[in-house]
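Notes to self after the Tuesday call (sharing in case useful).
The group wants a holo model before anyone commits to mutagenesis around the pocket. I volunteered. Ligand is iron/sulfur cluster. Logging inputs and output together so the record is complete.
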Amino acid sequence: MTRSKDPQGQDWAEAAGQCVLCGMCSRVCPTYHLYKEEGESPRGRVVMMQALLAGETVGERWREHLDHCLGCRACEAVCPSGVAYGPLLDGVRARFAPSAPTWVDRFAAGVRWWRRLGPLLRLGRRLHALPALPGVGRPPLLPPQGRWARRYPAQGPFRGEVTLFLGCVASLWDRDTLVATVRLLRLAGYAVRVPPSQGCCGALAWHEGREGEGRRLAERLLEALTGEGPVVTAATGCSAHLREYGAVLGEAGAAFANRVCEAGSLIDIESLPVRWRDAPLRVALHVPCSQAFVWRQPALYRRLLEALPGVEVVTWEAGLSCCGAGGGRLLHEPEQAERLRERWVAALRKLQVDVAVTSNVGCRLHLAPGLERMDIRLLHPLALIEQRIDEVES
Ligand code: SF4
Ligand code: SF4
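Result:
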């Protein structure tokens, strides 16, 4: 069904063969910046992949170099020869070096049944509400859980119906963003359908070379999100993968991919029927790799934020495309992820902002702990936009 399933590896060899070894990709590669080794550059990895696909034996170290790759696809965006680095990496990992699933992968796959966690989560909230014990503090607050309605009607003039993809991690750890997204979409005139039994999009499994698992999760998601209207998401890591479902599920996947869009692309700040707070706020904008190099819409949330009264947007950049969380590397290469995060945290420290935003839940979960000492909240841009609503006009 997919090129990466080609038993001869023929197509991947062709894709890798497009590389002209110019090295233009190295300057944008975070792992090359970190390790300063050719094997840690996109060009070095393409050469290794060519050797693997040609059936040559390569040293043990090649696997380490491939494992370090974040799949950020910054290299793909600057490649003059059009090497489809991201899909190539996925295909080669699937054939030669699939990563073992982590407990988080297992958890994410099982989140399809997340409603069964309800009693546990409710108990967690009750425990958290108890008085703190001296010297011990409160039990940690477990992720909030609540039921979604099947459909939320539009609040403004009706513009259509959309289907919200919750995302397995976001549905548990980023519910505030999802709630804000639903509110903004409704104010923009969209009815929002939230089909039950949604699970994981399978991005983690797919990018780590576990194709069978990635495909199973994708098939289940297609069953859950049947219909014809737009499928909106509020996590660019997920939406970037959904956008490329053609590679996972062939024609059916490609048809589904055509329905997928980022929730922010349906929001027009000027036409929302609200009065905005106008207190000055300086915001650092982090643009995830998935937003910049897969969606290729790096300015989407900047445009929305800059349209808000009182908001000044500064770009949060660290001379690196990826924060370190990319493609599950946060779980498999925690030390590398930490080193990359330190650079982002140091860069943010210089910006003197009130709040920071990023549109991918994975980046947010990875970066947020680094920001704790700076007392800077890290939100999804839509969550921040929703918080700037002062009053809804009747
Ligand atoms: S930029 Fe493209 S062609 Fe040049 S070395 Fe990198 S992958 Fe190869
Ligand atoms: S995907 Fe990112 S980390 Fe991997 S080789 Fe390309 S630029 Fe480097």
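Two things stood out.
The mean pLDDT is 87.
The CA atoms of residues 235 and 361 lie 6 Å apart.
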